[in-house]
Specification:
five-stranded parallel sheet; Rossmann fold
Length: 134
């Protein structure tokens, strides 16, 4: 266990069971603090106030959908917000959602149900790639 502070990850998800699964998986690594919002508007507010290392967003959340959440983060005038990687998480893989999510600015697209080992590896790679140089 290192003495580094936990990296903050925001998960915007309206299904409590899905949120809890992802939060447990990430917290179990000891590297991440997971905060949540149940709709896109609340998620955008947390992005502004908490400036997480990574945002996970379900594409079908209420108020402001995941595509628009991503576009607004990426269009922010504040570099510390626009540079935050956003990852779409969705069970709807039969449509062109992956392409639309990437076009909106998502760094990656993760399918539900999650492959927990692969999920942890993807998150680690994204956080490492986005980390500022010391």
């Amino acid at each position: 266990m290192s003495n580094e502070p936990a990296l903050k990850i925001l998960y915007i998800e309206d299904d409590a069971a899905n949120f809890e699964l992802v939060a447990r998986v990430l917290r179990a690594t000891g590297r991440y603090e997971v905060i949540g919002a149940s709709d896109g508007a609340a998620g955008l507010e947390l992005v502004r106030t908490e400036k997480p290392a990574l945002v996970l967003v379900d594409l079908d959340v209420p108020a402001i959908n995941g595509f628009e959440v991503t576009r607004q983060i990426k269009a922010s005038d504040a570099a510390e917000i626009s540079k935050i990687p956003v990852v779409a998480i969705s069970a709807n893989v039969l449509t062109n959602e992956r392409e639309l999510a990437l076009d909106a600015g998502c760094a990656d697209f993760i399918e539900k149900p999650l492959d927990i080992r692969q999920f942890r590896q993807q998150i680690e790679a994204l956080v490492s790639a986005a980390a500022p140089e010391p």
